[in-house]
Each structure stands twice: as C-alpha cells, then as structure tokens.
Design goal:
CATH topology: TIM Barrel
Helix content: 40-55%
Largest sheet: 8 strands, parallel, barrel
Strand order of the largest sheet: 1-2-3-4-5-6-7-8
Bound molecules: 1,3-dihydroxyacetonephosphate
Length: 293
C-alpha cells in the first residue's frame, strides 16, 4: 500500500517526497477574510524570501479568493510552497452564485483547499455532509483538502470531544477510497482555541490527533492512517510551535492570526530550529566548558 501511496503523490506532481518516506510536515497559513491585493502582495514580498529555502516541510498560504492568482504568481513553481483556497464547491459548474469549483481553483494553480473550517460550519451552514462533498470534489480535481474538525468549549467541558471529533472525521471521509484519503490533510482545530490566544496544551493536541489517526486506521488501515498529515490549529504562535511539533501525531499547523505577520509565520515555518542568538550562546558556552576541561 505504501508504494501505491508514494506513486500517487508522485503522479500528482509531488515528486519531492522524503526518502525513506515519512509524513512531511505542513505549515499552512489561513489568512481568512484579510488582505487586499496590495496588502497581500506586501505580505508575500516580505514572507517568501524568509521561507523559500525551507526543506523537508511544506508551506501553504491560503489568501482570500481575490488574491489567489496573485499568490500563485508570486510563489512561482516552488516545490515546497503551495497556495490554498479557503473553500470549494462540490459541483463542477452551474447556477451556484458566489461559489468556486475545484477545477477553477486547479486551473489557476491552487494546490490545497481548506474545507469545513469551523467558521464556515458556524456562519455559512457547512455540515458534515457538505464537508464530505467538498473534500471529495477537491481530491477528484487533484487538490489536497485540509479538512477541519474540532469541538466547541461546551462539548469539551461535557467530555464528549473525542466522540464528536471522531464522528466528524468518519463523516468527512465517508465514501472516499484509501488512496484519495492518504492525500488528504486533517486539521484539528478546537473552536475554543481559535483566535482566543488559548492554545490547547501540547498533550491535548496530541491526544486528539492520535485519536484522529486511530479513527482513520479504523476506516482504512494503519498504513493509510500513517500517511495522512494531521495538523493542529488554534492560536499557534512562534513560541508554541516547537512543543507542538515534538508530539508524534502532530504533523504541522494551520495558523490564523500569526500567518498575517511575515516574521511570526516564518518563525513558525522554521520550527525546530534554534533562534540564532540562542544557538550562538550555547556554542559559546560549549567552548567555555571545553576550555576548562
Ligand atoms: P488563530 O491562529 O488565529 O487562532 O486561527 C486558527 C484558525 O482558525 C486557522 O484556520
């Protein structure tokens, strides 16, 4: 199965897969309804030089629909940086005023799409059924869906969050084949942590991401579940990313507010790398120690 999964990634143009194959982390920035094209251009101009040399991880920027073409042009043919939309309709075309079809996004060079964000579920009537249809439409068009799941504070406090999230995952993947599923990305975004400054603890994030992987293993098998990237989202900041990424089932982050600042987002992208000043101090300390040996 794993060979077929690798082949599927390669046939979709994602040739830069790590060898031996392992889940490549993804740091995605969800700009939400922010940035005019002038502002988007300025942000990308500052951000891209800071992240273009990153290897062994994928970076995704998800601007509003009006800035998608601009972002695709600015990013260029980068192997590690992709552009994502924030929503997609499941029909191929037709009388759906205001909507965008997956083929339209594909046509302009979009490679990812966020589906089922809690804000779409809360304010725009997205349901588990429509999320499932959007995810399947994206996959069929060769776009990677970032499928969002996550519980409200009420559900967490009632200790019903595992059941709730697991049901969301099962419904999102309903009727999807194993190879398609392996290419999907899941984002666990507890609603109580979005835009509140209240990040889930690293342990809380790991607990649910692990449970999501177990749910996927139940739907498919362990190999497919091991191939699927599971992100955490909710008030991710430069000072929380390292701890999150140390958790075995957290494969990246879906970042809101902090993705609007080039410095913060690039620091999040570069998780696991020590700040230059800190590395310098440690090097100097080592030297001192070896001198006294
Ligand atoms: P914040 O990072 O602003 O909490 O937003 C998270 C989010 O909703 C990303 O999709």
């Amino acid at each position: 199965m794993i060979e077929e999964i690798i082949k599927k990634f390669a046939s979709d143009g994602e040739t830069e897969q790590p060898s031996p194959w392992k889940r490549q982390p993804i740091i995605a920035g969800n700009w939400k309804m922010n940035k005019t094209n002038t502002e988007a251009e300025a942000l990308l101009k500052e951000l891209l030089p800071l992240v273009e040399d990153v290897k062994d991880r994928a970076v995704v920027v998800c601007p509003p629909a009006t800035a998608l073409t601009l972002a695709v042009k600015k990013v260029g043919p980068s192997a590690n940086i992709g552009v994502g939309a924030q929503n997609v309709h499941w029909e191929e075309s037709g009388a759906y005023t205001g909507e965008l079809a997956a083929a339209m996004l594909k046509d302009i060079g979009v490679t990812y799409v966020i589906v089922g964000h809690s804000e779409r579920r809360e304010y725009f009537g997205d349901t588990d059924e429509t999320v499932n249809k959007r995810a399947k439409a994206a996959v069929s068009a060769g776009i990677i869906p970032i499928i969002c799941v996550g519980e409200s504070l009420e559900t967490r406090e009632a200790n019903a969050y595992k059941e709730f999230v697991s049901t969301q995952v099962k419904k999102a993947f309903d009727g999807m084949g194993a190879l398609s599923a392996a290419k999907c990305v899941v984002a666990y975004e507890p609603i109580w942590a979005i835009g509140t400054g209240k990040t889930a603890t690293f342990e809380q994030a790991q607990e649910v991401c692990e449970m999501i992987r177990a749910t996927l293993a139940g739907l498919y098998d362990a190999e497919v579940a091991d191939a699927i990237r599971i992100l955490y989202g909710g008030s991710v900041k430069p000072d929380t990313i390292d701890g999150l990424m140390e958790k075995p089932d957290v494969d990246g982050a879906l970042v809101g507010g902090a993705s609007l600042k080039a410095q913060d987002f690039s620091r999040i992208v570069k998780f696991g790398q020590k700040k230059p000043e800190k590395a310098k101090v440690e090097k100097a300390e080592k030297k001192e120690i070896s001198k006294t040996d």
